[in-house]
C-alpha cells in the first residue's frame, strides 16, 4: 500500500543531505520565500509567453527568435529543477533532500547552466551575421544550421555534466551531510568530500574553460566585430535598430556571465564570501531567468507587437486555421487542466516511490489537496461544456457559429475555472478547521480531500452536507448535462441517412465520450461509492491512479488517434 505521513519526523535518513540555505537568517526566510515565489511566477509566465509568441507569430519565425525560444525553454527547465525544492525548504523547518534528489538536481543544474553558456554564444554569432553580413544572413543562418547549433549546445553540455558529476559523486564524504547552499550544486559536493582529487580539479578547470571562458570569448569577439562595423554606419535609424537588437542580448550576457564567473572562478575562503556567493547564486538561478523575457520584450518592438496581437484579438479571423474552433479551444483548456493536475501530484508521488521516507509537510499536503480538487471540479464542468458544444455542432449546424461565438466560449471556460476554484476553497477551508488528534497517516499516494476527512477525530455534519451538495453540483449535474446532450445527439443522428455524415459525427463525439466514460467512471467509483473494508480501500488507490495519471495520459492519444484534423496538424508541425 501507499502510506504517506503528514508531519515529518525528527529522524533523518543517513543518505539525506541538509541544505543550510539561509537558515542563519530565520527572520528573512519568509521574505526570501515570497520573493522566490514571485520570481517563479514571473519566470513561468514570461518565458512561456516568449515561446508561444515565437511559435504563433509568423514574423518571429527567424533564427534570432528560434534561439530565444530555446533560451526561454532552458530557463523554464533550470528554474523548475531548483525553485520548487527551495520553496519547500524555506517553508519547512527541516532542510533535507534525498541523496538521489540532490544528485539529480546537481546534474540538471550543471547541464542546463553549461547549455545556456553555449546558447548565448550561438546567439552572439547570430547577431554578428545579422549586422555584419546582412545580405548573406539567410544563407549563413539557414534552418538546418540553426538546428544543428542548438542540438550541439544541448548534447555538448550533457557530456560535460555527466563527466564532472560522475567524478564528484564518487568522492567519499565521511559522514558530511550539510551543504551550505539553497540547492545542490556540484561544487558543494566537492566541498563535502574528505579527500582531495586532482583529477576532478583538472577536469573542472578544463570544462570551465570550454563551457565558460570560450563561449564568453566568442561573444566578446562577435561584439568586437559588430562594434567595428557599426562605427562605419552613418544612418541614425540603422544605429538605433542595431543597438535595440544587440542590447537585449548584451544585457542578458552581462547578468548571466558576470554572476556565474564570480561564483565559479573566484575563491571563497571565508564565511562572508560564502554567504555572498549564495546571493550571487540567487541572481543567476532566479533573478536572471525572470528578467530575460522582460529584457527581450521591453527592448523589442517585434515581441511587443506579437504579444499585443495575441492579447487584443477581438474575434476569430474570417478564414481561421483548422483548429481555431470552439471544440479545440475547449480541448486546449482540458489539456492545460490535465497538465496542472498531474504536475500537482506526479512529481511528489515519484519522490515518495523513490525515497524510503514518505513524508510531506502539512502546508504541502493542504496545497496538494486544494489543487487536485480545484482541477478535478474544473474538468467535470469543462467536459459538460464540451458536450454542449458537440450538441450545438450536430443538432444546430447552421446556427453553430452564432450559438458558440467566441465570447460565450470564453465565458463558459472562465465559469468552469471559477467554479472549480470556489468548490476547492469551500471544502478546504472547512477541512482545515477539523481537529486531527495526532493522526498523521494517509492511506493514499497523494493528499486527497476525502483522506483529510478520514483523519479527523470528530464527525462533522456540516462538511458532509456541503460535500454531498458539491458532489451533486460538480459531479452529477455535469454528468446529467452530458447524458442529455448525447441523448439529443443520438435522436438527431438516427434521422441521418448519410454514411459519411454518421462517420464524421461518431468520430467527433466518440473521442469526447471515451474521455467522459474514463474520467467519470473512475471518479464516481471513488467519491460516491462506499469503501468499508481494506480491500475496497486498496482498490480505490488503483482507481485513483487511473484518473490522476492514466486518464490525463490517454486524453491526447484519444483525441489525436480519432481525429484527422489533429493528426494533420501534428504532421504539418513535424514535417
UniProtKB/TrEMBL annotation:
RNA-binding as a keyword? no
Q: Which Gene3D superfamilies match?
A: Rhodopsin 7-helix transmembrane proteins
* Compartments, as annotated in UniProt: Cell membrane
Kindly give the membrane topology term recorded for this protein.
Multi-pass membrane protein
Segments forming domain G-protein coupled receptors family 1 profile? 46-296, 304-559
Main subcellular location of this protein, as a coarse class: membrane
- Which InterPro entries does the record cross-reference, listed alphabetically? GPCR_Rhodpsn, GPCR_Rhodpsn_7TM, Olfact_rcpt
- Family recorded in the similarity comment: Belongs to the G-protein coupled receptor 1 family.
So what does this one do?
Putative odorant or sperm cell receptor.
Q: What is this protein called?
A: Olfactory receptor 2W1
Source species, please?
Galemys pyrenaicus
Amino acid at each position: 500500500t501507499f502510506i504517506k505521513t503528514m508531519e515529518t519526523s525528527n529522524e533523518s535518513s543517513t543518505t539525506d543531505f541538509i541544505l543550510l540555505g539561509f537558515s542563519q537568517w530565520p527572520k528573512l526566510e519568509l521574505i526570501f520565500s515570497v520573493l522566490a515565489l514571485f520570481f517563479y511566477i514571473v519566470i513561468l509566465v514570461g518565458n512561456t509567453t516568449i515561446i508561444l509568441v515565437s511559435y504563433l507569430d509568423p514574423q518571429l519565425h527567424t533564427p534570432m527568435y528560434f534561439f530565444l525560444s530555446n533560451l526561454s525553454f532552458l530557463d523554464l527547465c533550470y528554474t523548475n529543477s531548483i525553485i520548487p525544492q527551495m520553496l519547500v525548504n524555506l517553508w519547512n523547518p527541516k532542510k533535507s533532500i534525498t541523496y538521489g534528489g540532490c544528485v539529480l538536481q546537481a546534474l540538471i543544474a550543471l547541464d542546463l547552466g553549461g547549455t545556456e553558456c553555449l546558447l548565448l554564444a550561438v546567439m552572439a554569432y547570430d547577431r554578428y551575421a545579422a549586422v555584419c553580413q546582412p545580405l548573406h544572413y539567410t544563407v549563413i543562418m539557414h534552418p538546418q544550421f540553426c538546428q544543428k547549433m542548438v542540438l550541439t549546445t544541448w548534447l555538448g553540455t550533457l557530456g560535460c555534466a555527466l563527466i564532472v558529476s560522475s567524478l564528484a559523486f564518487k568522492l567519499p564524504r565521511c559522514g558530511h551531510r550539510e551543504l551550505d547552499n539553497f540547492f545542490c550544486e556540484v561544487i558543494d559536493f566537492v566541498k563535502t568530500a574528505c579527500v582531495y582529487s586532482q583529477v576532478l580539479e583538472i577536469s573542472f578547470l578544463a570544462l570551465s574553460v570550454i563551457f565558460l571562458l570560450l563561449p564568453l570569448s566568442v561573444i566578446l569577439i562577435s561584439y568586437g566585430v559588430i562594434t567595428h562595423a557599426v562605427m562605419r554606419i552613418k544612418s541614425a535609424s540603422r544605429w538605433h535598430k542595431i543597438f535595440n537588437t544587440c542590447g537585449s542580448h548584451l544585457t542578458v550576457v552581462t547578468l548571466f556571465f558576470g554572476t556565474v564567473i564570480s561564483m565559479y572562478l573566484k575563491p571563497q575562503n571565508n564565511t562572508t564570501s560564502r554567504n555572498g556567493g549564495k546571493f550571487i547564486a540567487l541572481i543567476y538561478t532566479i533573478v536572471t531567468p525572470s528578467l530575460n523575457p522582460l529584457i527581450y520584450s521591453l527592448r523589442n518592438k517585434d515581441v511587443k507587437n506579437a504579444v499585443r496581437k495575441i492579447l487584443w484579438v477581438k474575434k476569430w479571423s474570417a478564414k481561421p486555421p483548422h483548429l481555431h474552433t470552439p471544440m479545440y479551444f475547449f480541448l486546449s483548456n482540458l489539456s492545460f487542466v490535465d497538465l496542472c493536475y498531474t504536475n500537482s501530484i506526479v512529481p511528489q508521488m515519484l519522490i515518495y516511490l523513490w525515497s524510503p521516507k514518505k513524508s510531506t509537510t502539512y502546508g504541502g499536503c493542504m496545497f496538494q489537496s486544494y489543487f487536485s480538487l480545484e482541477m478535478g471540479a474544473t474538468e467535470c464542468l469543462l467536459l459538460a461544456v464540451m458536450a454542449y458544444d458537440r450538441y450545438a455542432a450536430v443538432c444546430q449546424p447552421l446556427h453553430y457559429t452564432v450559438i458558440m461565438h467566441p465570447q460565450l466560449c470564453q465565458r463558459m471556460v472562465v465559469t468552469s475555472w471559477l467554479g472549480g476554484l470556489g468548490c476547492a476553497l469551500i471544502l478546504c477551508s472547512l477541512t482545515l478547521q477539523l481537529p486531527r488528534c495526532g493522526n498523521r497517516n494517509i492511506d493514499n499516494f497523494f493528499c486527497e480531500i476525502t483522506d483529510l476527512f478520514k483523519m479527523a477525530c470528530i464527525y462533522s455534519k456540516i462538511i458532509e452536507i456541503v460535500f454531498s451538495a458539491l458532489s451533486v453540483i460538480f459531479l452529477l449535474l455535469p454528468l446529467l448535462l452530458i447524458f442529455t446532450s448525447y441523448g439529443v445527439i443520438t435522436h438527431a443522428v438516427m434521422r441521418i441517412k448519410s454514411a459519411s455524415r454518421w462517420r464524421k459525427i461518431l468520430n467527433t463525439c466518440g473521442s469526447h465520450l471515451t474521455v467522459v466514460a474514463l474520467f467519470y467512471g473512475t471518479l464516481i467509483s471513488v467519491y460516491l461509492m462506499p469503501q468499508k473494508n481494506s480491500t475496497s480501500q486498496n482498490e480505490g488507490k488503483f482507481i485513483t491512479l487511473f484518473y490522476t495519471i492514466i486518464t490525463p495520459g490517454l486524453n491526447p492519444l484519444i483525441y489525436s488517434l480519432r481525429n484527422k484534423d489533429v493528426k494533420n496538424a501534428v504532421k504539418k508541425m513535424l514535417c
